[in-house]
## 1
Amino acid sequence: MKHDVEQVKLLDRFSTSNKSLTGTLYLTATHLLFIDSSQRETWILHHHIAAVEKLPLTTSGCPLVIQCKNFRTVHFVVPRERDCHDIYNSLLQLSRTAKYEELYAFSYNPKQNESEQVKGWQLIDLTEEYKRMGVPNSNWQLSDANRDYKICETYPKELYVPRTASKPIIVGSSKFRSKGRFPVLSYYHKNKEAAICRCSQPLSGFSARCLEDEHMLQAISKANPSNRYMYVMDTRPKLNAMANRAAGKGYENEDNYSNIRFQFVGIENIHVMRSSLQKLLEVSGTKGLSVNDFLSGLENSGWLRHIKAVLDAAVFLVKAIAVESASVLVHCSDGWDRTSQVCSLGALLLDSYYRTIRGFMTFLISNLNWFQSVHGIFFRCCQLDGDPKEISPVFTQFLESVWNLTEQFPQAFEYNEAFLLQIHEHVHSCQFGNFLGNCQKEREELKLKEKTYSLWPFLLDEQKRYQNPLYNPDFSPELTLLEPNTVSFNFKFWRNMYHQFDRSMHPRQSVFNLIMNMSEQNKQLEQDIKELEAKIKQRNGQSDALPVKEQQQPAHPAPLALKTPPCFKKEQPLIPVNDAVRTIEGSNAADNRYSEFVAEFSKAEPAVVSLEYGVARMTC
Amino acid sequence: KVSASAASAWPSAPSRCPGSPPPSSGCPPPLAPQAMLRSSQPLTGPNRKRCREDEVLLGTVLDEGERGFIIDTRSAQAAKQARMTGGGTEPKSSYPQWRRLHRPLERGRQLQESFIKLVDACNDTTINMDRWLNRLESCRWLSHVKAALSTACLAAQCMDREEANVLVHGAEGTDTTLLVTALAQVILDPSCRTLAGFQGLLEREWIEAGHPFHLRCAHSAYSHARLKQEAPLFLLFLDCVWQLSRQFPFSLEFSERLLLTLFDNAYASAYGTFLCNNEKERCLCKVKENTHSLWAWLNQPGERQKYLNPLYSPNALVIWPSVEPQSIQLWQGLFFRWIRSSQYLDEAWAEIQWLVEGSEPPKDSAGNRLSRSLSDPTARPENAR
C-alpha cells in the first residue's frame, strides 16, 4: 500500500521560530517516511507508533501528532483535511497488529542466506554461559522436569535447581506458587557459592503451608556451603503483599521456613509505573517549561523515585551475596517484572562479564532474565493489540538503571549509551525475533528461529558504534562488585532517551564522537608508525647509502565508516557522524527560547543552519 | 543629574559570518561593530528628572536610524519603584531610539538564600527522591541559572542577530549587570573563551568594573551569619560558564578546574586579585604592591596546563546554549565536591586526556621516533604510551 502526500510540514517542537521543514510524506507497509526539501529522510516504523492524534484544523493545515514508543514525537501539518484523515486512519490500522504473523519480524528480509540466519540465532550459546557461571556443579544441577512445559508453562525447559531438590519437591513447590513459577536459579556466583533465585509469590493466604515449598527453600540454602541462612526478597510494597493474602496468595512466613530472612523492598507495580511514565512524558513534552515546572513535574511523576527503588533493591541483593555470601530468592507477585529487574541488575553489578557487549547480549537472552520465559516482555511492550493495562515500561526502567550505572562508572562498561538506546529501539520495533513472545513455549510455537532474524549479529557488526572508548577491562576484575551510590541526587533525568530526537536540546558538541575518532586515529597512527619503522629497519639493513628521510604518512583520520547495514538503513543515526571531528558548532539562536520578546526582532533567521553537519552556514 | 557611574563601553567583536566554509561561498563578514554598554540606573527620581549629558552620550552610540536595546535586570515594577528612592528608568521620550526590555534577575539576599538552601539539600544524603526534587525546585538556583543565561543570550542576540547596540543595567550596575555583560561576551566572543581571554574578561568585567567581592563573597553558604551584602553573583556566573562548557565541550580553552579555583579564590585566597570592593579601595590598600596576583600564579607554565581543556578547539562561532530545563544541569563538580567521591569521574577524565593528548603532537613524537630509527638502525620502536 503506498500513499504519498506532498507539501506536508514537519514542525520542530522545541524551536521558537516555528520553523518547519516541508516535504513529502509516504506510507509503506512497514514505515512512515518523510523526505524534506533537502532530501533528508525521517523514518518511523509503524510498530513504534504508540498514539496518533489529529488536532483541530488551523490556517496552515491539519495537524497530526504522532507519539512513538521510543519517545519520539513528530508533529506534521498536512495541507488538506481529507489527506490528513486518510493518513490518520491508515496509521491507526498499521500501528495495530492483532496477530504475531503480521509483525515486521516475519516479513523482514535482510537478504541473508539461510545459514547466516541460523548462525545469527546460535551466536550466543546459553550452555556456555551457564558453564562460565559455574553450573552445573556439586550443588546445582540441570533439571528436565519441565521439559514439556508440564510443570510451568511460562518457564523454559532447562532449569537449574539444587541437587537436593527432587522432582516431587519441584512439583509440590510449583503447585504452591502463583502461576506455577517455583524457585529456580537465576544467577550463580561461583566465588561466593551463593545464588540468586527467582520465583513468584506463594499461595500462602493467611495460614497455608506447603512442605515441598519449604523443602525447596531449604534445598537452596543448603546448596550454599558458605552460609546457613538465605534471604527472601519480596519486591512489592508491604501493603500490596499483605493485600494479596486476602486473595489466597501472599508472602513467606519466616516461622515456617527455616533459616530465611525475609525482606520487603518496595517497588511499585506495573500500573503505577505506567502512569509514572505517562506523567514524565507530559513534562518532557511541554515547550517553554520553567525550571520549577520541570522539577515539580519530575517529582510528581515519581519516575526517578522508581528507578532509585529498583537500584536500591539490586544493591540490597548484591550486598547479601557479596558481603554475606548468602543466597537470595527474589519474587514479586508473578515473578515477571520487578523480579526480572532486580535479578538482572544484581547480576550486572556482580559480574563484570555482563558489562561487556557480548556479555550483555548473553545476559539478555539467557533464561535468567528477559526473554526465554520468565518475563512477559511482549505484553509489556505492547506489540500486539492487547490489554492496555498490561503495558508497562519495565524494560525501559531496567535500561535506565543500567544507564545510571554507566554514568557513575564511566570506565566499567564496554558498551555506551547508544547501545542501550538501540536495544530499546528494537525491543519495540518488532523487526527481530529476539524480543517476541512471552515465554520459551510461545517462542517455539511461533518458530521464531526459523522465521525471523536475530538482532545480535547486526549489533556485533556495528560494534564500533556501541563501544565505550573509556572502557577499562581492568576496572573491575572478574566478579568484582560495582557499588553504586544511590543517594537521590545521583539520579539524573535521561535526556538522551526522552529527548533523543530533539536536536536543539542536546549538548552541542559530542565528546563521545571526538574521542571515538581520536581513538581510531591513535590506532591508525600507531600502525603507520610501526609500518614505517619496519620499513626503515629494512632499508637500513639492506642498503648502506641513502639516509632516506621518510616523510611521515599524512594521518588519515579514520572516520567512523558506518556502512549502513540493512536493518539499520534509513534510520537516522543516533549520533550524527561526519568527517569533521566536531559535530554541532554554535547552533542557532532561533532554536532557543531566550525571551518573550522574540516578536520584537525584525531580522529573519538565517535561512540555512545545519545543525548536524558541522559548521552552521548562515546567510548574512 | 548625571547617572551614578559612567557607562563603560565595550566594543563587541564584529558580528561576522562563522569560520568555514571559506568566504568565497558566502558573503564577506560585515564589520559594523556593535557596542555593549553597562551602567547603573539613571537617577530619574520621582520628578522624572532628565539629564542632557546622559541622553547625548547614549545618543552618540547610535547612528541615524539605528536602534538600541536597554536590558534592565530589574522587573518593570521594581524599576518603577526605584524612582521613589531617586532611581528609575530611561523614559522613552528622552531616549527615543532605545527600546527597554526588563529581565528580572535575582540578586542580594534572595540569591544568597537560594544558594544556602541548595547547599543544605546537597548535604542531606539521607534525603528521599521526592524531597530532593522538591528542595532542588524550591531553592530555585537552577531557575536563576536559566534566567541569567537567557538574559545574556538575549543581549547577545540583540547584538549578533539584530545588530543593535545594547545597554545593560540594574540598580547599582555592580551585580546582575556584570553577570549579563560578562556572560554575553563569553557567548559572543571566541577570544573570551581562551584562558587568557577569560582572565582578561574577569579583570575587566568583574574586578575593574567594581563588583564588591569583599562584601559579596564573605562567608559562603555554611555560615550562620547572614550578612546583608552577601550574594553569590560571581558563583552564578561561574555556574553559567560551566553550563556552557557542558553544552559546548570543545569551545572553552579552560576546564572545570579553573572555575572551581576561581570560586575558591573569590571567597578566600592567598592572592590579592579578588580583594576589596573596587579599584579605589585596592589603590588605598596598595593591593598591587603588597600582594601577588592570582593570574601570575595560574599562568606559570607548569600550573597553566592543569587548567586547560584537552578537548579545546577554537570555535569562531557564537555559541547559543539551550536554556530548556532539561538542558540545565546541577553543577555536580561544585555542589557535590566534598560530598561524594569523584574518583571514577576523575579517572575517566584522565583517560580522555590521555586519549586526546596521545594523538596531539603526533608529528613531534612520531617524527622523533622515526628520525631516531633512521640514525640508529638498531633502535627498538618504543611504546608510545
## 2
Amino acid sequence: MGLELYLDLLSQPCRAVYIFAKKNRIPFELRPVDLLKGQHLSDAFAQVNPLKKVPALKDGNFTLAESVAILLYLTRKYKVPDHWYPQDVQACALVDEYLAWQHTALRRSCLRALWHKVMFPIFLGEPVSPEMLAATLAELDVTVQLLEDRFLQNKAFLTGPHISLADLVAITELMHPVGAGCQVFEGRPRLAAWRQRVEAAVGEDLFREAHEVILKAKDSPPADPTIKQKLMPLVLAMIQ
Amino acid sequence: MGLELYLDLLSASCRAVYIFARKNSIPFDFQFVDLLKGHHHSKEYREINPLKKLPSLKDGKFILSESVAILFYLCRKYSTPSHWYPPDLHTRARVDEFMAWQHTAIQLPMNKILWIKLLIPMITGEEVPAEKTEQMLVEAKNNMQLFEEKFLQDKMFITGDHISLADLVALVEMMQPMGSKYNVFVNSSKIAEWRMRVELAIGSGLFWEAHDRLMNLAEWDCSTLDPMVKEKICELLQKFK
C-alpha cells in the first residue's frame, strides 16, 4: 500500500496537505474521513491516529498526525522545490516561525469564526449570542491584521519573495471564515493581493477544488441528535 | 554583537531555548526581559518583537521569535549533535509531530494551571471558580495520558533511545504547574521515570538552575506589579467566570 492521506476538506489543515500533495504531484490514496458524521471518532481511524484528528498520514507502517509534521515529511520525502521550505537556515527559520505562531493565533480565530457564525447555529442547532459572535469576529479581525502587519508586510509572500508552506497554511486557514461569510480580505488590499498571488502559485483549479467543501459549509444539513451529542463536547474543547 | 537571546525563565518556551543553548555550549548574551515587571511591553522590546512575546533571538540583524523556530535554527546553525533533531525521515517526523501538537495540548493547559492555581488568586485576590479549575485539570490530565500513550509509549525518550528537542520542550512545559506547587508527574510512574531521564540527560545542575525562578514564583511580591498589567489580569479572570 502506498501513501494514504486521511482527510476531510472541511478542515483547514487537511486543505493545506491536500493542495501541497496535489501541487507537487505526490501520489497518494485519499481516505475520506467525514468529520460531520463523526468518522474521526471510530476505532478504525484511531489505529491511524490515536489523537482522533485529521489530517493523518499512513505510509506503509508509518503513521503521522499533525498537518505541519505531515507537510514537512512530504517536503523531505518527495524532494519538492526549495521555496516551499528553503535550505537557507534563515529563510527556513521564518517559515518555522510562522508555522509555530499560527497554531494558537490564526488557526484558533478562524476555527471559532466558522463555528460561532455558521456551524453552531446551522449544523448543531445551537444559537450563539450576538455578544459571543461579535467578540469572535473582533478577535479574528485583530489576528488577520497581525498576519498582515507582522508577517506579510510589503513582501510578495509571508516569508519572502516566494510561496512557502507558511502561505499555504495561512491561506487555507483564512478560507475558513470566508466559508462562513466573513469578508476578511475586504479593506485589506495588501492581503487581497497576496491571496491572488497564492492562488495563482497553487493553481486556481486546484485551489477551487480544495475549497469546494468549506464554501458550502452554510449548507450543512443539521446534525442528527446522536451525532450532535457525540460531537458537542469535542467541538467545545476544540474551539475554547 | 553576537547571538542574543531575549528571555525570562518563568516562561517554559524560554527555558527550552536557554537549556538547549547552554547544554550545547552555544555562546549568547542573555537579555533578561522581566515578565513580572511588564518589560515585554517596553518600547525597546517591542522593537525586537512587536508581538511582545518571549523568547526572541537576535543574530546580527536577523530576528526570530517562536521557541520551536529558534530551537531548529540553533540546531542547524551550530550543528548540534544529531539526536536533538534526528536526520532520519521518520524519527524527525516524530519530533515535528510532537512540536506541533504541544502548542495547544501541553503548553497552553500547563500554563493555564499556573495562572489558575497561583497567579490569578495572587494578583486579583480572587479564586477561579472550582468548576473551571476542575475542567482545566481534567484536560491537562487527559493530555498527559495521550502524551504517555501516543508519544512516549514504552520508549526511553519520545524518539527512542536518545533525548531530542521534543523531550526538552515537553518537560519544561510540564514543569510550569510546579510554580504553583502542582505536580503533574505523580500520576504516572512511566512519566515520572521519563522526567528523571530527561533531567539527567540535560544535567541536573543546568535543569534546576533554569527552573529556579519558576520554583520561587510563589514568593513574588506582586504589589510591585504595574497597575496596567494588573488590570489586564483582572480582565483575564472575567473570562474564567
